[in-house]
Amino acid sequence: FGPFGEHAVNASWIAVQELEKLGLRDDVDLHVYEVPVEYQTVQRLIPALWKKHSPQLVVHVGVSGMATTVTLEKCGHNVGYKGLDNCRFCPGSQCCVEGGPECIDSIIDMDTVCKRVSALGLDVTVTISKDAGRYLCDFTYYTSLYQSRGRSAFVHVPPLGKPYTAEQLGRALQAIIEEMLDVLEHSEDKINCQHEH
């Protein structure tokens, strides 16, 4: 995400730029976008990106001023959006998708990803959350989950230096996304095997 509120520099964008420098494994095409903190832009941009790239997975990264760990979000919420965005706008319905389910879970097993990344011994703590905060992070996550039938993930990072450097966050994102892809590929192999029998 881009800047908003007291976050004149958004740690999530800096972390993603570090990830872009590091790259992912060779068979992965990484496309990186900075998303403005605006509800209406998100509603237009997220479906457009899904359409343009037909990705295997979309991972959104946002900053949380309250976070002290790198946090994997399990689900996105549809209702309860009252905070004004950078355009001083808030959806009149206070929801992402009218008539959509209240909550959509990612198809990625975040507990498994968290355990695996923690076992790598990085100098970053990774935790799990079920509440992405009912602001643009949660709004974007739900929009993406709805669009992709759960094929999205969301990672919250703390502000820079509280306690991690951009480089530490970039390395953590690299490890997290590689584990997510691994988990996703294995769950799909299982599904495909079941169809063949």
Automatic annotation (TrEMBL):
Cytoplasm found in the keyword field: yes
Alphabetical GO biological process terms: proteolysis
Reaction it catalyzes: Release of an N-terminal pyroglutamyl group from a polypeptide, the second amino acid generally not being Pro
Active site: 73, 137
The keyword Cytoplasm appears for this protein: yes
A GO MF label: pyroglutamyl-peptidase activity
Entries under Pfam families matching the protein: Peptidase_C15
InterPro entries registered for this protein in UniProt: Peptidase_C15, Peptidase_C15-like, Peptidase_C15-like_sf, PGPEP1_Cys_AS, PGPEP1_Glu_AS
EC number: 3.4.19.3
Keywords: Cytoplasm, Hydrolase, Protease, Thiol protease
Subcellular localization, as worded in the UniProt entry: Cytoplasm
UniProt GO cellular component terms: cytosol
Record function comment: Removes 5-oxoproline from various penultimate amino acid residues except L-proline.
UniProt family annotation: Belongs to the peptidase C15 family.
Subunit structure: Monomer.
Protein name in the entry: Pyroglutamyl-peptidase I
Gene: LOC101874898
